[in-house]
Amino acid sequence: MTYHFKCTLCGEEYDPHTTRYVCPKHGDDGILDTIYDYKRIAAATSPQKISNSRDYSIWRYADLLPLNDAAESAPPLAVGWTPLYHAKTLGADLGLSHLYLKDDGRNPTASFKDRASAVVVAKARELGVELITTASTGNAGAALAGLAAAAQMPTIIFVPETAPQAKIAQLLIFGSRVMLVKGNYDQAFDLCLAASKEFGWYCRNTAYNPYTVEGKKTASFEICEQLALTPFPSPAKLERGARGEGWRAPDRIFVSVGDGNIISGLWKGLRDLAALGWIDKMPKLMGIQAEGSAACYNTWKAGTEKITPVNAVTVADSISADIPRDGVRAVRAVRETGGAYLTVTDDEILAAIPVLARRAAVFSEPAGAAAYAGLVKAVKQGLVKSDETIVCMITGNGLKDVKSAMQVAGEGIHIEPTLEALRKAMKT
Ligand SMILES: *Cc1c(COP(=O)(O)O)cnc(C)c1O
To answer: What mean pLDDT, rounded, does the chain reach?
Structure first.
């Protein structure tokens, strides 16, 4: 696959063989986009060819990924092709007839981050690096630890020492060297960056490494491919697909935003598909932030591109970021698709967890539930129409953060092991 990099700030173009991370002119802010030759991709593959693939993972999209030989370099762990549920009951609760949940908690390390780590580990193998490092609130690290274990590559991972226990357990179990940073995610990020420069480690840091967004874009490919078949392929859709005309884009996608790399990835995937002519409309991207970690929302609201750091505090640890590392692109993603940013409170985030579980049977960690809490708010504010096709990204599994779930789960009833005790308990 031939491609080159382009700075998101100045548009200067770079050769991936000589530039590894960011635009040299802009330092760590100079996040790079990956630019493809779409004519070559169109000649090599088609929606129909991909839809006939038996590879039910992100690697079905290898022709749209920045790897030389994905069949050779992809770590052997099944990432992606997560279910897209038509959530009829939950949708009806909100007066929406076409609400879909993309359950990315179904990835091997139980979060969306596996998409990015899979592509970064594959690239690391192609580059022949010896060690990979990353900073993380927990999920990106767990994903890197898992994918690196699949490829038998060593990792050093920096997380805030306050990260949820389950996420730290994942890092340790997969065999990473774990640095529990006495500080927040942003401090872990800066330390990891400094360490990778000092020791020459390959750095997966979100957005700083240009391949994270390229892995994350696969969720958009899946959404548009799966929507073309969901809930059941109608003859008309099959015929359309059979003629290779393309997939189906939703009207809106709701996703929670911390660093802004997932929303940037979703946008990149949609732009790839639009450039290829495989979708005929651009969905509106709806970025949801916690009220206590809303730097992108603030910038969007102010109508600028200037990201002002915040002191992030939220129960949704995965979207807690003082400085969103992909902030500029994340603001553009919403602005240029005609979407919106919304903020939700920690109470709204926690309240969304049992609703998702009880009305749609998806158990989400707080950051995933935040996207749904944002949808509830958008419906209340009249921002969405009842017949729109809406996808809500559930980005991480609820077992990642049992402590938060237990705050809103209710309580079990302790009883003696007798029918009498049970009868009594059932009356209360
Ligand atoms: C990382 C993460 C997010 C946010 O992604 P950003 O790229 O930081 O905006 C949302 N939900 C979960 C579960 C995550 O792990």
So the answer is: 95
Residue nearest to atom 1 of ligand 1 (CA): 318
Tens-place pLDDT, residues 291-332: 999 999 999 999 999 999 999 999 999 999 999 999 999 999
Of 139, 186, 254, 296, the one to substitute when testing ligand 1's pocket (max ligand atoms within 8 A of C-beta) is 139
How is residue 59 annotated by DSSP? G
Q: How far is the CA of 321 from the centre of ligand 1 (A)?
A: 10
Model confidence at 403: pLDDT above 50: yes
Q: In what order do the strands lie in the sheet with 98-103?
A: 84-86, 98-103, 389-394, 252-256, 284-290, 340-344
Cα→Cα distances 128→118, 122, 132, 140, Å: 15, 10, 11, 21
Closest to 155 measured CA to CA, from 176, 130, 140? 176
* Cα distance between residue 96 and residue 363, in whole Å: 21
What digits encode the pLDDT tens for the residues 90-125? 999 999 999 999 999 999 999 999 999 999 999 999
Assess contact for 131 and 155: CB atoms under 8 A: yes
CA 12 to ligand 1 centroid distance, Å: 28
pLDDT of residue 244 exceeding 50, the answer is no
Residues whose beta carbon lies within 6 Å of some atom of ligand 1: 111-113, 139, 206, 256-262, 318-319, 365, 367-368, 395-396
Architecture per CATH, domain 84-110+212-409, reads as: 3-Layer(aba) Sandwich (3.40)
Whole-structure pTM over 0.85, yes or no? yes
Element (H, E) at 208: none
Least Cα distance to 222 among 279, 176, 288 occurs for: 279
- 8 Å CB contact between 157 and 171: yes
Domain ranges of the chain: 84-110+212-409
Predicted local distance difference test score (pLDDT) of residue 230: 63
